[in-house]
Amino acid sequence: MSNLKMKEAALIYLDRSGGLQKFIDDCKYYNDSKQSYAVYRFNVLINPSDIVELDAELGNHILHQPLKAAQVFQSINIVLKLTHLPPLPSYCLDLCEFPRDYTSQRFYTMQGIVIAMTTVTKYTQGARFLCSDEACPLSKGFQYIRVHVPGATESATVRNDFLCNLCSSSLQEDRKFRVLGDKQIVEIITAKSLHAFQGYCNNQPFRFQSLTVFLRDESVNKMNIGNEYKVIGIPTCVKISQTAVCVEANSITFCIPKVPSGISDNFRCLLSLTSSSCWKFTAILANIFASQIVPPGTYNLLKLCLLMSLVQTSDRSKELENCLDILIVTSDTLLIDRLLNFSINLVPRGIRHSVSTEIFPTLSRNKYGTGAVSIQAGSALLAKGGICFIGDLASHKKDKLEQLQSAVESRSITVYISGKKFGDDVDQQMTFPVQCSFWSFLDMDSPSRRNIQKTNMLIGQMDCSLIPANLVESFALLINCNESSSCHPLLPTVQHTLKKAIDPEGLLYLASKQFTTEDFEKLLAFAKNLNVEFSLEAERMIHGYYLASRRIRTDSIYGSKLSASALKYLVSLSEAHARLNLRNKVLKEDVLIAALLFETSLTLKYGAAVFCVAPNAVFPFEQYNEEYLEQRDVFLTECQQQLQQFIATYGPGTAIFASDE
Ligand SMILES: [Zn+2]
């Protein structure tokens, strides 16, 4: 096909797609601008499907030789912006596969999670050069124009050793014609590499192999740390201290995770069998959950809380309110560690923080030498929309714990970039939302803890000294998990451990065969995407309990122990219980479970209060057959009445209360 025919097709495409009108508008913008430009830059939006339909050869040319194809559009600096690529394997660049094609300079699509990004700096879009010999005809006019092409470094566009073709004198840049654009460098990794390290606890330092993506002009600030994106771009090889494959982004789209259309048949059957009760389904779930790690019937309270925290993880970007942070006090750290590692694997973003890495973002100078500062994500931002399991709370240094507390309370983290340190004129700061739930545990048997015994403990209160009280308070749920307590009988756990030692891969219980890990994964993915709303009754009950609790847990010196976030946690817990029941409506029965869990946690933090809840109130029995489930429902109904009585006595509307809120 002749070049002329291709130009004709390009013109027809521009005409039909509205590109010509956009071209005219862009020209107007340049015409009105006071600045002198060496180069006019135009973006042309290309829909590959439409263009292939119109002219197959031009379409093919754009997809496979994009740099040459831009010339068909007849201007100096044309950037073809693709809406998408054909969904064919040959257009995908798998970040796990080697070797990577960086020689053919064509478009590929790739998908990855942002683990680092730089601040925005300038680059040269285009520059005008003149021959330094005034007698040479090329010392005037626009004969030497240099334009940035995808994948080129700054020195390819602007340098001081270019020579005149006519007289070999050196070329000098006419600075007032230089056109600058914005540039940002991000690093992405494939989501698969996160799975490889999920639940993997090794204290050896490691780093994910990342791919560098250059964002320019309108693409700058389109990517956020922790999010997953589809990027269309042209791979290229850049030589820095070592040679690296990079991609210059052409188009960026946010990846929306797939939601499963349903749950497994066995769970569906279980749900319908238990439909008469609001409490049975979740009780059975907690009972059989993680039977690979602990025998059914043990650690039920903790397992219910883990499931509720998992179901409150969110792929939707803007929800910060849902987080359910859990702190477990235990003397059996090995088992708890295993249980938590197992659980984080059930959501796409369950990150096991390794002590050799950082929880929160860190700064470094970026290796491409552009003066920009690179911000590395850290575990918390990588766990965006998921769980960040940070292991033993006491293993973190004091300053990190302070950072953690501030992040948990504000759900954001701010990074200060000192201009002095990174060679910039001004200080900068960047704030990132922290959209994950934190899980951690405290070892009650650690030698440093055993010797100290607080003397003035209140009934039911837990001794968490050595960890700042404010930090313990900032976790939504504090859970006591000791095998010696009545809720955690020792014998089944011992039997389980022995059987596992004999047959590590074996499924020990009927429940593990009927409800597999994949079934739980699917159930959680389905449940967490349910939109839930509160019934009026449930809403009243939450507010009633919150206000009543605030009032009875107030002392004259420090005011109320219940912060405003308590209400947020109660809402999140109630939602979680409704979601785990696969219900769209939050009922007062869900609020009861939320209140019991929250009150148990409050008792551990501050001691028992008027609304007295036994540590095993949510799971009063050791076994869960049909008969016990029925008895538990009767027991919980009584609890519900007590809660209503408590609200009626101490809640809003009672005389003493009027002055408080
Ligand atoms: Zn010359």
TrEMBL record:
**Keyword DNA damage belongs to the record:** yes
Provide the MCM AAA-lid domain boundaries: 520-602
MCMDC2 N-terminal domain: residues covered: 6-77
Localization recorded for this chain is:
Chromosome
Source taxon at top rank: Eukaryota
Point out the signal peptide segment.
none
Which species expresses this protein natively?
Ovis ammon polii
Q: Name one GO molecular function term.
A: ATP binding
Q: Which is a GO BP term held by this UniProt record?
A: double-strand break repair via break-induced replication
Name used for this protein in its record: Minichromosome maintenance domain-containing protein 2
Limits of the MCM C-terminal AAA(+) ATPase domain: 283-416
> Which GO CC annotations does the UniProt entry carry?
chromosome; nucleus
Sorted keywords for this record are: ATP-binding, Chromosome, DNA damage, DNA repair, DNA-binding, Meiosis, Nucleotide-binding, Phosphoprotein
Q: Which Pfam families does this one have? A: MCM, MCM_lid, MCMDC2_N
| Functional note | Plays an important role in meiotic recombination and associated DNA double-strand break repair.
**What family does the entry list?**
Belongs to the MCM family.
> Which InterPro entries does the UniProt entry name for this protein?
MCM (IPR031327), MCM_dom (IPR001208), MCM_lid (IPR041562), MCMDC2_N (IPR058769), P-loop_NTPase (IPR027417)
